């Protein structure tokens, strides 16, 4: 295990499984980072957005299969926990929400909203599990709306257990989450603007360009009733306008085996905000045969110690003439050959492909644009 301050970012960038970003802790459903996930159902494109790869909620992984629904962590209601995001293409940040479901994803309650600065302000965030959260098994979901690039929604869900719980999460303080770019409603986010959620809930942190202004007027999207299937958008509570929590600003440190050192420590990034010292360390590897995230106390969530340089996708300028340009994400996944003895699997790589019709010929030429980090 290397020191927590070492950053071999070039190795991380070469890993297709980190092309975008994903919930790394708690382990999400079908996570390739979870050593308990059967190889047959590991999603090496867990970093891909909805529509491109998966449906809302949870990429369609709820009870698919039911054997993957076992709890990966236990949290006490009213206590602090950390969730960790892994990846490099932060797409300029954006806004994100943490929500919980106690009925297998039929209904959700937002327990934390990051309005602006999501990911670029830190890859590990400290939040509080509401004291009202009831006991039992629940889904812990991370939803992200990127600021730059294609209009996307990312949604990863982890099975967790809540103890010492309360009476329940009411819809005024803990509303249904914001949903857009997922083909379940007419809502789309607007590129270049961090989403200001119509109802962020009781616990809100403002980051990025919103850190000082703390806007409450909804912005950054088009459409109405921007919620999931069967849900109805509720009016924001008076508490949500003024509530605020604090997120940490650690990043991701990478090992020579294309892994991630996750643990508390003093950040060396100029943009980092005071990290809490600790002796807990985690080692994260993406090799399908040795994938692991190990540490002294997994229930307290992994915390990256060093902030890696964030990145965005370079996008080609749109042509102003009549030529049309299509953009779509394309996943390339290599699977083991039938005669391959080792059974090793190369992680997926996400790449943007632009297709442009040549004038007059009707032929199509493909141009690749990769992430530049």
UniProtKB/TrEMBL annotation:
Annotated region (Disordered), positions in chain: 213-249, 290-373
Keyword Signal appears in the UniProt entry: yes
Species of provenance: Kwoniella mangroviensis CBS 10435
Lineage of source species: Eukaryota, Fungi, Dikarya, Basidiomycota, Agaricomycotina
Low complexity: compositionally biased ranges: 230-249, 290-312
Keyword Signal found: yes
UniProt signal peptide: 1-19
Compositionally biased spans, kind Basic residues: 328-337
Protein name according to UniProt: DNA-directed RNA polymerase
Superkingdom per UniProt: Eukaryota
Keywords, in A-Z order: Signal
